[in-house]
UniProtKB/TrEMBL annotation:
<comment type="similarity">
    <text>Belongs to the cytochrome P450 family.</text>
</comment>
<keyword id="KW-0408">Iron</keyword>
<keyword id="KW-0479">Metal-binding</keyword>
<dbReference type="InterPro" id="IPR050196">
    <property type="entry name" value="Cytochrome_P450_Monoox"/>
</dbReference>
<dbReference type="InterPro" id="IPR001128">
    <property type="entry name" value="Cyt_P450"/>
</dbReference>
<keyword id="KW-0503">Monooxygenase</keyword>
<dbReference type="InterPro" id="IPR036396">
    <property type="entry name" value="Cyt_P450_sf"/>
</dbReference>
<dbReference type="InterPro" id="IPR017972">
    <property type="entry name" value="Cyt_P450_CS"/>
</dbReference>
<keyword id="KW-0349">Heme</keyword>
<dbReference type="Pfam" id="PF00067">
    <property type="entry name" value="p450"/>
</dbReference>
<keyword id="KW-0560">Oxidoreductase</keyword>
<protein>
    <submittedName>
        <fullName>Leukotriene-B4 omega-hydroxylase 3-like</fullName>
    </submittedName>
</protein>
């Protein structure tokens, strides 16, 4: 809706990272906390803290002397880091405490039945109902750590993936159109809202991920989520979110490359110096 408003006069030149990061944060707030942040349309103190913390971590990483906590917390950035951490932790703690108060009143079975009716079982609910390897409930600190990890690692990474996918599709319009047709085929006689979440080398080739081309391929050949017992906790969530967001975007818009080639900047994620700018224009025909 935001992009449709921005391109209502024709086309718009947009920084993918700026817009998509807010979208992924909005989605995570809803799925982790069942909280409608509406951060794409209005400022959010919590979201601002998340974004600043990500930037501060990246800056600190480039200065080995600041890896020492005692020195870092004496700096202006270190004090901002502590302030933002307190704000984020306070928000998560408040949600956990409020949610814990509902458990004893209803009991686990009643709680799950109530949630099933509204389909709003979120990440905090799952953690509150989980047990560790010894059968004990997770502590508030355990739950906060998992929720914060999901928020921090789930917004920038997914936003980067989506931004660079749109960049490559803008640079390769033949693949963009083929992808758009695939989405339309999927949605034949259905509404866009019905999309379900079930569905580098040196050359851009999306067909390398076709099922027949992946047979027998080692999981280590595709490393963004890693493998083994410490692989990404949000892998399925991230892939589902990217597929749905990409499909719904291509149904409504055509993305075109900017006049200038982006200068890639490897940080905690792969960014573009000065933003990843693409031209977005509404589709004149087809499903909207």
């Amino acid at each position: 809706a935001k992009w449709q408003r921005l391109v209502s006069q024709g086309s718009a030149n947009l920084d993918m990272f700026e817009h998509i990061s807010l979208m992924t944060l909005d989605s995570l707030q809803k799925c982790v906390f069942s909280f409608d942040s509406n951060c794409q349309e209005k400022p959010s103190e919590y979201i601002a803290a998340i974004l600043e913390l990500s930037a501060l971590v990246s800056k600190r990483q480039r200065h080995p002397i600041l890896h020492v906590d005692l020195l870092y917390y004496l700096t202006a950035n270190g004090r901002r880091f502590l302030r933002d951490c307190r704000l984020v932790h306070d928000f998560t703690d408040a949600v956990i405490q409020e949610r814990r108060r509902t458990l004893p009143d209803h009991g686990v079975d009643d709680f799950l039945k109530a949630k099933a009716k509204t389909k709003t079982l979120d990440f905090i609910d799952v953690l509150l109902l989980s047990k560790d390897e010894d059968g004990k409930d997770l502590s508030d600190e355990d739950i906060r750590a998992e929720a914060d990890t999901f928020m921090f690692e789930g917004h920038d990474t997914t936003a980067s993936g989506l931004s660079w996918v749109l960049y490559n599709l803008a640079k390769h319009p033949e693949y963009q159109e083929r992808c758009r047709q695939e989405v339309r085929e999927l949605l034949r006689d259905r509404e866009p809202q019905e999309i379900e979440c079930s569905f580098l080398p040196q050359v851009y080739d999306p067909f390398r991920f076709d099922p027949e081309n992946m047979k027998g391929r080692s999981p280590l050949a595709f490393i963004p989520f890693s493998v083994g017992p410490r692989n990404c906790i949000g892998q399925t969530f991230a892939m589902s979110e990217m597929k749905v967001a990409l499909a719904l975007t291509l149904l409504r818009f055509r993305v075109l490359p900017d006049d200038e080639e982006p200068r890639r900047t490897p940080e905690l994620i792969l960014r573009a110096e000065g933003g990843l700018w693409l031209r977005v224009e509404p589709l004149s025909a087809g499903p909207q």
